[in-house]
């Protein structure tokens, strides 16, 4: 795992998705996809490392419009040879510009359904992650297609690099046929940096009022959350490939993404 972490001055949760085992016995390639927390504080040295050394050509910014307007588009926005793709995973509507507008009836939202005891299960993190699929399938597919078609490395980020970033990375790795246990382990790895992540967010005007840097357990990436999400996708949506296909994904898209993440070419 140590060789996957990337040390930067202005971000604390950055790692390469290379070296993960696939079901066929291969591994994902280094230098194809990175995942990260907020990139707003990147230094000149960081930018040089990401762009010139690693070869980042695409930034997948999963933050909401409110976050981007508050924080700015990031230091890689408009940078020569780097394309920034703003792909919010929140349903942003004129009525709810904060990005949390509800557009689907509760009975189709699994995190809103009552459990057997009639208790709401919205706080089950793994089921809550399905909101990104229900609300923004367009952004999910666009993110995966951007990774698949990138000429260089893609870097996927949100604020903490845990939830929204974790879902997009999990789906990309699922399409690449990475072992489920390895997908979960990659998600959990963010826990190694959770204290530093929360400290960064708590110091900002955008996230400071909503992030309690002392409540680490509430923000910790527990394995059960990603296991629940992957299980729901498999059992309720027919698997990642089936859900993607239902939303316009093609076999050619699958081939391109697998080739991008696993091919040595």
Short key terms for the protein model shown above:
12 helices; alpha/beta; Protein-Tyrosine Phosphatase, Chain A; single chain; 5-stranded mixed sheet; 41% helix
Could you outline the blueprint of secondary structure elements for this entry?
Elements: E1 15-16, E2 33-36, H1 44-54, E3 56-61, H2 65-71, E4 83-86, H3 125-128, H4 130-135, H5 137-149, E5 153-157, H6 164-175, H7 180-188, H8 194-202, H9 216-219, H10 223-236, H11 240-246, H12 251-262
Parallel strand pairs: 2-5, 3-4, 3-5
Antiparallel strand pairs: 1-2
Q: Could you explain how this protein is built, in words?
A:
The longest helix is centred in the C-terminal third of the chain and has 14 residues, at 223-236. The protein has helices at residues 44-54, 65-71, 125-128, 130-135, 137-149, 164-175, 180-188, 194-202, 216-219, 223-236, 240-246, 251-262, and strands at 15-16, 33-36, 56-61, 83-86, 153-157. With 265 residues, it is an alpha/beta fold. The protein is globular. The protein has a five-stranded mixed beta sheet with strand order 1-2-5-3-4. It is built from twelve helices and five strands. Helix 2 links the parallel strand 3 and strand 4 (83-86). The protein has a single domain, classed as Protein tyrosine phosphatase superfamily (Protein-Tyrosine Phosphatase, Chain A), CATH 3.90.190.10.
């Amino acid at each position: 795992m140590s060789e996957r972490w990337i040390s930067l001055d202005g971000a604390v949760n950055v790692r390469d998705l290379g070296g993960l085992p696939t079901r066929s016995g291969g591994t994902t390639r280094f230098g194809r996809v990175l995942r990260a927390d907020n990139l707003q504080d990147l230094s000149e040295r960081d930018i040089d490392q990401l762009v010139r050394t690693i070869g980042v050509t695409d930034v997948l910014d999963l933050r909401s419009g409110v976050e981007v307007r508050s924080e700015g588009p990031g230091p890689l926005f408009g940078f020569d040879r780097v394309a920034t793709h703003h792909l919010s995973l929140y349903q942003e509507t004129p009525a709810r510009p904060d990005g949390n507008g509800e557009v689907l009836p509760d009975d189709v939202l699994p995190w809103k359904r009552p459990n057997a005891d009639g208790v709401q299960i919205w706080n089950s993190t793994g089921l809550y992650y399905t909101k990104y699929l229900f609300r923004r399938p367009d952004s999910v597919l666009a993110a995966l297609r951007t990774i698949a078609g990138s000429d260089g490395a893609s870097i996927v980020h949100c604020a903490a690099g845990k939830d929204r970033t974790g879902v997009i990375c999990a789906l990309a790795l699922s399409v690449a046929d990475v072992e489920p246990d390895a997908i979960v382990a990659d998600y959990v790895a963010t826990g190694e940096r959770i204290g530093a992540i929360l400290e960064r967010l708590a110091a900002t005007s955008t996230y400071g009022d909503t992030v309690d840097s002392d409540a680490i357990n509430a923000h910790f990436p527990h394995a059960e959350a990603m296991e629940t999400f992957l299980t729901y996708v498999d059992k309720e949506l027919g698997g990642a490939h089936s859900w993607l296909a239902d939303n316009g994904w093609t076999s050619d898209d699958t081939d391109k993404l697998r080739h991008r993440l696993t091919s040595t070419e």
